[in-house]
Design a protein that fits this description.
- By secondary structure, this protein is α/β, with parallel strands linked by helices.
- The protein has a single domain (33-56, 69-193), classed as Rossmann fold, CATH 3.40.50.
- The chain is built from 6 helices and 10 strands.
- It has helices at residues 47-55, 88-94, 98-107, 123-136, 153-170, 181-187, and strands spanning 9-18, 21-24, 27-31, 36-40, 62-67, 71-74, 141-145, 173-177, 190-195, 200-201.
- The strands form 2 sheets. A 6-stranded mixed sheet has the order 6-7-8-4-9-10, with helices on both faces.
- Strand 1 and strand 2 (21-24) form a beta hairpin.
- Helix 2 (88-94) runs parallel beside helix 4 and helix 3 (98-107) packs across helix 4 (123-136).
């Protein structure tokens, strides 16, 4: 079967406001398969809002949103279930079977840790678990909101390398928010910047 040539993401946003405040202006983004887009700009500019619109979480915007395929999202914090095992933290939110969960854990270097609880993992390992959960569903589009924030430089470097490896293995389109120029340079095939009020794509 021939793979569809349709873009994974086609967003033509005209405006987005919240509580009477205009946050985003006209923004148009098209993303192809296996492309990685870095979304940068000052704090509070609306990067996370745009990511949530693309994810289908944020409603009430004016414009058109088309996403072809399955979406997975990695948030700033690991958002794990502390009272459930590592294995359950993959199978319960995603609905994947046990073998898929075990394979996902092995892919991120957590083989054999399925019976542990999130509190027994380091912060870096919790971030690995979040990536494992996202890739377990075999997404077409992966959205990441500052996924390596609060990690020390060595650990952030390790996580970037892991992400690049997983992305190449799964050939997934990705959009990630970051404030770190080095992350954008290493991870992205293209970078766009938001600026202004309401925020638009900077030229």
């Amino acid at each position: 079967m021939q793979m569809s040539r349709a873009p994974v993401v086609d967003i033509d946003l005209r405006s987005f406001s919240k509580n009477g405040t205009a946050i985003l202006g006209h923004i148009k983004i098209t993303l192809s398969r296996a492309e990685t887009l870095a979304l940068v700009g000052p704090s509070g500019i609306g990067k996370t809002s745009l990511l949530r619109i693309i994810a289908g979480i944020e409603k009430g915007f004016e414009g058109d949103r088309r996403v072809n395929g399955k979406i997975a999202m990695v948030f700033q914090e690991p958002t794990l279930l502390p009272w459930r095992t590592v294995h359950d933290n993959i199978t319960i939110p995603t609905g994947v079977d046990a073998k898929t969960a075990e394979d996902a854990l092995a892919d991120v270097g957590l083989a054999g840790r399925g019976s542990d609880y999130p509190g027994q993992l380091s912060l870096g390992q919790q971030r690995r678990l979040s990536l494992a959960r996202a890739f377990a569903v075999k997404p077409t589009l992966l959205l990441l909101d500052e996924p390596f924030v609060s990690l020390d430089p060595a650990l952030a470097d390790e996580m970037i390398a892991l992400f690049i490896q997983l992305r190449e293995t799964h050939q997934v389109a990705s959009i990630f928010v970051t404030h770190v120029v080095d992350e954008a340079d290493r991870m992205a095939s293209r970078t766009i910047r938001l600026a202004g009020s309401p925020a638009r794509l900077a030229v």
